Amino acid sequence: MRKLHAINSFGSIQKSKRNFLLFLWFLFPSLLMGGDEMLVLDQRKAEDIAVENSPEMKLISSQQSIKTLIVKENWRTYFPTASVSWFRNANVIENESDSRSQRLALTMEQIVFDGGRRSLALQAALNDLNLSRYDFLLAVNNLKFKVRSAYFNLLSNKAQFEMQNRSIERQKEQLRFAKREQQLGETTEVQVLQIENRLNEIILQNKRTESSFLSGIEEFKIQLRLPSSARIRLAADILNGITFNYKELPLDQLVGLAFRSRVEFDRTKAAELQAMSEYEIAKSFYIPSISVGGFYAASGDRFEPKQREYGFNFRVSMALGANTLQDTSNYISRNDDTNRSLTSTTTLGIMDNLQYKRKIAQTGIAAEQARLTRAQLDDIIRIEVSKALQNYRLAWEALKLADENAKVFEKRLRIKEKQVGLGDVRRVDLAETEIFYVEAVNAMIANRVQFMTAVSQLEMAVGANLDSLELIKTRTN
Q1: CATH code assigned at 221
Q2: In terms of residue numbers, what domain contains 268?
Q3: Principal localization (predicted)?
Q4: For residue 131, what pLDDT is reported?
Q5: What is the pLDDT of residues 157-178, one digit of tens each?
Q6: 110 with 291: CB under 8 angstroms?
Q7: In the chain, how many domains are there?
Q8: Residues of the chain whose pLDDT is less than 70?
Q9: Rounded to whole angstroms, how far apart are CA atoms 16 and 26?
Q10: Does a structural domain hold residue 238?
Q11: Does 424 reside within a domain?
Q12: Which of 49, 271, 329, 346 is deepest in the core (most CB within 10 A)?
């Protein structure tokens, strides 16, 4: 029995040592981590790091650059196309003299009519560029919200772990007193075992909290795209370092603010315009495209060619249902207008435009969906704001009740401690009160996190910047 007691005592010492080291990690991380720099993170710094390191943000930003180039490409279609060609030929014929020829030409062509397709394509590209800008703003807000939600959960686990450690120390002290009283015959073995059971319950909670916190830290580093070797410490304290405030916010004012501030309104408008532009382009498949062009060239058997020539062309292209028709007429003048020619070519592509019906159907459905989305957005935003405001109010009421409940249990705990000292109640009753107190503090922490999350959700619902309502004040440590 003495040997077993010694082993249990050694295990208890090892557990206490590990808990003490982890407790020091929270308070003085540099003592345990050596001289390397510790990354101290408050909420805003964590969000900034996440945005800066996010590959998704970089991808959206690069897509904006690509869509800017697409806009430039569509602007280019308004200007003539030009090309320079140099033709060289050499013929070798047996028993005859060899012949060589060269031709240097400048060719230009300009679309003069296309039924507005170029304008529609340019407008679609501009709307797509605007969409990417709105998508970037939405993605930044969503990423910040995810980061702060994870940060709040870490603060919760940290506070619970610290509180449970203090509770464990109090319970261990009560267990030591109970064992002494058992030796003196003042406490039964059953009561000692009950106290030990209560202690084990808190230790089990503590282990779960420790596991959640440590795994949460690693997941948080992944979310912030930090290296695996990075060491971070949370700068805030949810129990003593954060002040919570409440403002009565009228629903109508918040809805009006959302209508003015939510980028979704501009985004859905841009999406509708883009979809309508693409639909109009698809419907105008039958409108002919007319272009005119010309060329100036010089030809001869050596460089620099001396024989001048010039010409003009007129081109009409159009769709005939699933077929395409192209007619080209050319006028060419050579040898100082002594050699003139007029040519015309008509080409009919058979069933080479089957996709025109599919494009009309696809773009028509997309345009109708975009129109309905924009029409329904007012109600959607109003519902989101109303829901967020209701959650905010309920979260504040729950926070006040949870804080008050934790204070009541703390008072009960102090009273029980005094009563135990006077011998009026059993130590097992104090152990049970300790359990209730731990649960009350856990509920208080959870409701504080819920309120902080509700405030952020309300700010996002009205389209305001995060923290703009100034309901939560954080003191870093």
Answers
A1: 1.20.1600.10
A2: 41-65+130-278+365-465
A3: membrane
A4: 81
A5: 999 999 889 888 888 888 888 8
A6: yes
A7: 1
A8: 1-36, 98, 337, 476-477
A9: 16
A10: yes
A11: yes
A12: 271
